[in-house]
Amino acid sequence: MSAENASGPTEDQVEILEYNFNKVNKHPDPTTLCLIAAEAGLSEEETQKWFKQRLAQWRRSEGLPSECRSVTD
């Protein structure tokens, strides 16, 4: 079955995204985002969307509001 983009990134792509999220930066700047997107073989939009969703998920797991205005890490 080819579930290319139907259900989001592949396992390999998620591995790259997770690595960058956990080890590099939870809030990548546009340049970093572009590099991560290139490394994962995703568009910048897809990568940004993934980071946004992942950050909301992380915030919930930390007991924080999923959206936050001006809290720096």
TrEMBL record:
GO cellular component: nucleus
GO molecular function terms attached to this record: DNA binding
PROSITE patterns (UniProt xref): HOMEOBOX_2
Domain Homeobox span(s) in chain numbering: 10-61
Localisation: Nucleus
One Pfam family it belongs to: Homeodomain
Keywords recorded for this protein, A-Z: Developmental protein, DNA-binding, Homeobox, Nucleus, Repressor, Transcription, Transcription regulation
InterPro entries: HD, Homeodomain-like_sf, HOPX
Top-level taxon: Eukaryota
A biological process from GO: trophectodermal cell differentiation
DNA-binding annotation, residue ranges on this chain: 12-62
CDD domains: homeodomain
UniProt keyword Oxidoreductase, yes or no: no
Complexes and interactors: Interacts with serum response factor (SRF). Component of a large complex containing histone deacetylases such as HDAC2. Interacts with the acetylated forms of HSPA1A and HSPA1B. Interacts with HSPA8.
Protein name: Homeodomain-only protein
Gene that encodes it: HOPX
